[in-house]
Model the fold of this input.
Amino acid sequence: MPTAGSVAPLHLSAPPVTIALTLPLPPGVNNQYLTVGRRRVLSKPAQVFNRDVGKIVERARRDGLVTPAAEAVLKKTFLGAYLTFFFETPMRRDLDGGLKIALDALCRALDLDDRSVVDLHLTKRIDPLHPRLDIELEAIHEWSFDRDYVYLGEPAARDDDPHDPLT
Done:
């Protein structure tokens, strides 16, 4: 307990936990799916992208860039996602066209639930010689939703979902 004239110790929040990786550019939204009969399926480029992301995550684990401790923290918190797309030209692709497939592939490879993403930043840059996607996931330890709004739908029957940071 602080005494007269002393300063109370600062309570620092948990240190930031992040995972940063460089991925290949995902296929554009128009090249992600095919219609086969009455079903929509991932295109070959989308399948290759998903497989490549899995390999990159496995390599990052082996190299110690993705640690079990960091993965455990990310599984228990809300997430911030920061994606910087480096395209060959400035106007050829939409910024958001590769967002969903990239986030889905990375979260699948890390066994994270992408519904935990509550903060999202997209940036478009140009690098004609090295197109890529730099992506960072960050644990957000303190996040609250606006309590002025009340969910009026049915309660979720997923109380045992290990990926749900709200349970």
Q: What stands out?
A: The longest strand covers residues 78-87. DSSP finds three helices and six strands in the chain. Confidence is low (pLDDT under 50) at residues 1-11.
